[in-house]
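Pasting as-is:
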Amino acid sequence: MRLFVALDLPEGARRALGELIERLSSECRRSRWVRPEGMHITLKFIGHGDGTMLDSIDAALATVRLPEAVEMRFRGLGFFPNERRPRVAWCGVEASANLVQLAAEVERRLEPLGIAPESRPFVPHLTLARFQSTEGLNALLRAATELGSRDFGSGRQTEFHLFESVLKRSGAEYRRLQTYRFQKEAA
């Protein structure tokens, strides 16, 4: 099993980003564009685990708590590693500071299970496309300049999910295995 922990997107943001992908994908046809229904904000990529780890992972994630919901706004377009050599197109995620705390808490709870912490800092983003060639990239870069500060919606999250990623020839498919409410109940 290939596992990861992620936040879901509010439906309005998913719809707006789906329309953007539909528009931009005609510029870069040889790129791999994500399917809007599969968009998520990864908190932790766990990797391959066998079914015996699932109960331990579930128990660890069920203990994650934060006092407040995570507020997020989806805005702008960018590229990893940069615009000169783009390999990935992404939408930015502006979030309350507790999103970083949530990712750190997920890491902290999973580390005792032998799941190594990330070596890079947590940078929330939504992957839109992965580039397989430079065909159409100039048009995409121009569009990104125009849309650099466009707002694609916002949302508030009080739960996260454990997903299984199934790799298929048509692309990865995600199956939600469990949902965890992380916000403490108001007293």
